[in-house]
Queue: 3 jobs
Job 1
Amino acid sequence: MSEISSRELSVEAARQKLGLAKDECLEDGLSKWRKVEIRLYWMAKSATSSAAKASFERDLAELRILINAVEAEVAKKEVSQVDPVQRQISPPAKISKKRKGGAMIFSLMFGLLGGGGYYAYKVDFFELRNHERDQVTLKSLQENFGVSIEKRRWNEAQNFIKLFKEAGAAEVVIQESLLEIEKGRNEEKGQQIAFLISNAQSAQEAGQLAEAEIFCQEVEKLQPGHPIVPSIRESIRKSKLEVRRKLIVDEIGKAMELEDWGVAKSQLVMLRKVDPASNRIPSIELSLKTAEEKAIKRKRKAAGLVEKVRSLDEGTYSPEVMALLEEAVRLDPSKKNRALYKQMASYGKMVKVPEDHETISAALKVAKKNDRVFVSKGIYHESLIMPHGVQIIGESRLDTIIECPADIGAVITVPADVGEVRVVSLTLRHSGLVNDDERSPVVAVNGGSIEGEDLLILRASGHGIAVLNGG
């Protein structure tokens, strides 16, 4: 429609734009266009795009100007009919249905709806039909109403109720339609509630308790006081209680393993508060009491063993003493007892030759710092390289003899970076003579350090003791 001003518009112009013949009854045409006005109003209200909405509202405004002009003319005629005697009634001229229909369709398609705007925006409330079906009939409204019900568009279906009333539907039809909307909404609501109830139960069974509670809240929004919600909430409460109870019991178990009796007892108090009716409380209480009593006995026994170990400690390694200390640490693995074990384990061991090892060299290979190699009486043909921190003690200086051929090398060599070496009560000697310029000493201290006591050095091919490279 082009823009229209109600002040300039004549009734003839309004007739022409509305498709009414000059002698056509205004009341009949006005009723028809009033219905079109209602349809156009709902088209504008339910338009899916802002452009379509603006177009429909503009057409609606112009249509109302035309209708107002016609209504003003009808009002004038009603005034003139006050005196029936003076009124002259002439029979209405016959109007060609073809002409009437053509004018209506022309004005409807190109004037009111702007050349197909309705189809462009696909508003599915109704469609304008050709010829005599240019108004939305009650049947078509009911069909579209059925589509809205099927697609569960309840607000849209509710709008059709207003259109039914405007179309003159019987009250029973309107009431049945309202019942159908209510029934559909209730069915949909019931399905939603059933879905939420199922989700709440599944979440509760899976241990997703927070999610289960959210589903319960959604159910209550749709149906306050739903009978199943309290039972689900009770299950959620029990599940939460079980989780909390398990956490507390686990904490008690960990504290008992660490023999932290204070923590274990405080957690037991917490369990009594959280779940006073728990049937596990008596058994846990008994287990805690029994474990604490056993621990006290073990610690007392360990303390007695430690006291004995300290009385036997001479600063040297003793397998018998270490066995006592190991038992004490097993009974009471306290930090203090473990430190004592580490200290005494560092004491040197006594390795005997030939009782433990046939040769002195074999004994030196397994010896560690602070170990002592005790060598019984005899002659041992070996050339020894001393490890760090090891002692060699002979049974007798005269009868415990270590010798090696002069052409082999030194009887004892102390390499660089080797210290804390001690040799006691030994005879060290070469066998045979070497006349070369490079003759080996009996004891070669090649950058290291050695302490000797009660030694006899004989038959040296070179020097008896040679200190080389800063030894």
Job 2
Amino acid sequence: ALVYAMRHVYGSNPGEAFFASSDFGWAVGHSLTCYGALMNRNETVVYEGKPVGTPDPGAFFRVLSEYNVKVFFTSPTALMILRKEDNDAKYRRKYDLSHVRGLFLAGERCVPEIHRWWIDYITNNNPTATSAACSNSHDIARAPEFSFAYMDGSPTNPVVNVSTDHWWQTESGSPLTAICLGDITTGADIPPIRFGSAGMALPGVDLRILRTHSDDGDEDDTSPKSTDHALEEAAPGEIGSVVIKLPLPPGCFSGLWKNDKKFFTEYFERFPGYYATGDAGFVDADGYVFILSRDDDVINVAAHRLSTSTVEETATRHPTVAECCVVPRPHNIKGQVPVVFAVLKSGSYTPSQLADAKSQIAAAVRSNIGAIVSLLPENIFFVEKLPKTRSGKILRKLLRNMFTAIADHTADTNRGSSRLSTTVIPLDLPATMEDFAVAYDIWKQLLDTPHVYSKL
């Protein structure tokens, strides 16, 4: 499965250099940098460091140039960091990347605005100039695309600097969806990149979207999930639970270490006959797969199920925002409402500018998605950094649980309890967190904001 992925998905030929920026503690690190690359007889780059600060935002590009890397694999988080620190491509332009065939993204969903920026940043071809942003999943008939086939005006240009998102899981062992570069010889053969999509299902992956019922529970709920509903496949463009019909393709996991019961209940009990990926998404009429978020990142606002990714897409388009994430917070009338945590691009901002930015983001969400989202400016927080794992994944569950902890404590406060301490987070912090100080800074910011207590 890994050799197939190296050759057919990534288009990495024996003898060529392959560079994945993940460390060996994560699936990409050992599966691709070590096993996949070496079994495919590739040169492989072992890299320790970040996209910035080691020593500057040109670190990745120096490696790509120095080692003549043909295929590069990184996370959307790295792109967001570069967008913040090198938005004008000053460091990027120091290096010739014309030899790089493919630039693959995975680990988190790459929102369209970030992917468009990345293509412009790498190739100096601005895809925004030729495609309008898609405001929500139901606008799929006019989903924004970018074709690498005519990037230099010729339908027979070579395969160079193709940037595409794709999707897989630790459990799958290798990619599940992608735009494959391995069997492509000219740019004219490359399917259009559809922004927000992770490509199409690969051979052997019988991917389906099943409708989700409101009483199915979420991943934080340890009670048994309902299996009384008949399994219904979603229509093209309809958001549901992403599943894979059994049998699973080669290379997938076959159990959990000494825990057969959890292997069944976690992955196969909820949807009999299917592997539950734990992700929410949809497939469009042309077969492009859109992985939007984890199942438990879907917000239920006044009985309306909304994907956090649609709010993130709109917020990220604001000119001051480098990256953001959206989580739900409890609301005593609507059940949940969204909260935006955003990191600003480098620069200085006055309080008035920050207040205007919050109002503009809230207005854009209302205009693009609808008033039902119920995003208020006061539920937008500008932070220095987002809490992430060492592999770059945003710890959304931690942020969500902070609000739950505040809501639970607020209920106790009505009975005379003391206020929460800004120096003690009453949660188990993930051991995989890269910087614990980030979590404490956000926790203090939340507790120092009066309406966080008063409007739960």
Job 3
Amino acid sequence: MSDEISLIGLGRMGRNLAANMMEHGIAVQAWDQSANVRTEVGTFLPDLPLSGDIEELIESLSPPRCVMLMVPSGDAVEQCLTTLSGLLGRGDVIIDCGNSHYKDTERRQDSLSSQGIHLLGLGVSGGLDGARYGPSLMAGGPAAAWQRTSPMLETIAARAEGEPCAGYLGEGGAGHFVKIVHNGIEYAIMQILADVFDVLSKGCGMPAEEIAKTFHALNSGATAGFLVEASEHVAGSRDEAGTGFLVDSVDDRADQKGTGHWAVEAAFDLGVAVPTIAAAVQFRILSAEDRLRSDAMENMAGDALHHSLSPDDVIPLIGSGVACAMASAFAQGFSLIGAAKDDFGAKIDRRRVALLWRSGCILRGEMVHRIADSLDSEPECFDFLRSDWFQPLVAKGIEPLRALLTAALSVGLPVPGLSSAAGYVDALSQSRLSTRFIQLQRDYFGDHGFRRIGQDVLVHGPWHRDDDP
């Protein structure tokens, strides 16, 4: 296949991908439905050939053709595919680079396959800089489509230790499934770091520039990574006037585009616990419940105890405590990937996922490298928290994490990321959970029965009567 491709969608991500491909010698012809966007991109990328309509775009390619979509998930993807299905033919490949739900991708693949058109679902991580200078790419779909497009995709991807951070993860929606999980972990770690900010800001009364320095110190060792680096920058950013810090003027209603919700939904479907991902999603939802929050503020003194924590007591807890919390979030996500089993033709290689995340993506950092190393030495280890590198990190960090959580709760600060991450680690380490009591409750009012330890037969408690209807 020659190095030529048509690109549909020239928003900020699309135009950056186009620039990336052009820089690597790939012949790109592009189109966007907005004439204004095409004009703007023509100024930004004067050497990029732009088509006036989608038909002209497809005619510019020699068969077998390859078309890349960089449009919002949902209706925009559906409309593009409907149009393209009438213009493309057997052997042509469409690459969906948006955050599509993996089940939608599989439905679309089935529909297009009847015409011999291949649809590759491509998870793209790295934001605008990644698109421009090298993203992490997670592919899923027909193996033949990957074989044909991989030379181009590997060329534009980020690199780690000389290897492209682009790879094939399985059939169907495997690529978009892994991207959903990636974003779920991203939600969780962002919430953990936001919790830390709130403890330092509201709990300790630290000024923003000092909090930025704390994040700078955190960006080393096990916790080093892009999201911690980003936290340092946003914590210390001044507002436009230069008289204060930007974070103090930001509306706290947090947006979300759905991938975090989809990760939690997939976890429910597959029977996997992802409490920190779920807590992060729920907290964003709660942040937007204006009426509920305003009514509560009228009746509860939520800010009364703020600024009563000592930074000298809190800061020493952060390094190892946050490392433990981040490891917990990653473990939840990789457990979800592992639970997919052979849903995508074969079991997704979790080490391969970690290798793709080493560079270019939002989750890049030291912990991803250590996950790859751990799964390399212990490939069948389902819970890498028990691996040689992570086990001592968790053992060292769980007490500081609990202490950090206790400090936050003592001054009335909600820290859903920290609390759920600690709860996950503590639950895994218990020989018996409180759920044994729930089993008796269920039997008491619902006659559901319970199993005794070491037995697989349902029995009932003394409240059960054989003559109950």
